[in-house]
């Protein structure tokens, strides 16, 4: 296992993150975490809305300081209480207190905004998060499932006001769902943020033709079937498993991307970790991407076409070495 820096910080995080949302059996969850740690993994991800997930993790987690522990807030703690959800200061404060109790710790390494709340001013959220950092209850912050302009504005506000910016972005990303390449990924790269990619196997769709899979291939669209077949074929050619191919493709996209794998068994974890040793050749990458076509759309495709054209930037455009 190798390590990356988390955003524009000095925090070292492993190149694969472990999601705990699907943990069920306590004994198996303990074995998974131990094996992950033995392999060099150090990031555990949960959320206040993951049922009893925080409490289960708090019960079994030993060597607390060995791990980079992260959880999320925003989603409702009480559906009858209008202030038990959202990104405002009251819900942040109460959710943080609840998560600290459940996880049996006095601080969180990463505290994530789980979802953009359009009714709470970004100024309020960023100040409340910064206050929690200054109080020592959280060390770093991240944001999940928000538009690029929201994240960019939030980090710009934090920069101007000397507050803690978001160091990480958590979004869905896989061969079938590449929407983040339009705005979110370029924005994160520009701000130096880490991108933790959830659903890297497309909720099992990319391994739907593999044995003992919970996704019925009959429920997939033609595009999903084509992608799953391409993943299976590449895996057979390389002597790998489909999950490993899907994760290796994701890891090839950007140095900022960190796959967030959710497993319910030690066998799944072992299979996923083996993706770290797999480097896909160019012909395999081409085969995978041609099976699930993706259009960048405006303005990305327009800018890419215009950039080398003399009409846009002159005759020296193709001879300019950028950053």
From TrEMBL:
**GO CC entries:** cytosol
Q: Which keywords, in A-to-Z order, does the entry hold?
A: Oxidoreductase
Query: What GO annotations for molecular function exist for this entry?
Result: oxidoreductase activity
* Entries under InterPro entries matching the protein: AKR, AKR_Detox_Biosynth, NAD(P)_OxRdtase_dom_sf, NADP_OxRdtase_dom
Entry annotated with the keyword Oxidoreductase: yes
Q: Which domain of life is it from?
A: Bacteria
Q: Where is the NADP-dependent oxidoreductase domain?
A: 15-291
Family matches, as Gene3D superfamilies: NADP-dependent oxidoreductase domain (3.20.20.100)
Supply the name of the protein: Aryl-alcohol dehydrogenase-like predicted oxidoreductase
């Amino acid at each position: 296992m190798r390590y990356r820096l988390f955003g524009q910080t000095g925090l070292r995080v492993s190149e694969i993150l472990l999601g705990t949302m699907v943990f069920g059996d306590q004994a198996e969850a303990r074995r998974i975490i131990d094996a992950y740690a033995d392999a060099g993994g150090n990031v555990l991800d949960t959320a206040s809305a993951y049922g009893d997930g925080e409490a289960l993790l708090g019960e079994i987690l030993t060597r607390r300081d060995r791990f980079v522990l992260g959880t999320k807030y925003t989603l409702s703690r009480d559906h009858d209480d209008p202030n038990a959800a959202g990104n405002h200061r009251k819900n942040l404060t109460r959710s943080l207190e609840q998560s600290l109790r459940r996880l049996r710790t006095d601080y969180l390494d990463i505290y994530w905004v789980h979802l953009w709340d359009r009714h709470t001013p970004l100024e309020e959220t960023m100040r409340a998060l910064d206050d929690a950092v200054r109080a020592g209850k959280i060390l770093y912050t991240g944001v999940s499932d928000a538009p690029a302009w929201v994240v960019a504005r939030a980090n710009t506000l934090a920069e101007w006001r000397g507050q803690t910016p978001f160091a990480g972005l958590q979004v869905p990303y896989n061969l079938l769902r590449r929407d983040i390449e339009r705005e979110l990924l370029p924005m994160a790269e520009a701000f130096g943020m880490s991108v933790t990619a959830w659903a890297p196997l497309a909720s099992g769709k990319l391994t739907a033709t593999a044995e003992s899979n919970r996704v019925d291939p009959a429920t997939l669209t033609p595009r999903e079937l084509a992608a799953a077949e391409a993943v299976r074929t590449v895996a057979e050619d390389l002597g790998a498993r489909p999950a490993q191919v899907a994760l290796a493709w994701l890891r090839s996209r950007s140095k900022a991307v960190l796959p967030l794998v959710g497993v319910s068994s030690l066998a799944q974890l072992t299979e996923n970790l083996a993706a770290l040793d797999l480097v896909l050749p160019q012909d395999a990458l081409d085969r995978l991407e041609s099976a699930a076509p993706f259009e960048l759309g405006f303005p990305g495709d327009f800018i890419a076409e215009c950039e080398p054209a003399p009409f846009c930037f002159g005759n020296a455009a193709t001879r300019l070495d950028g950053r």
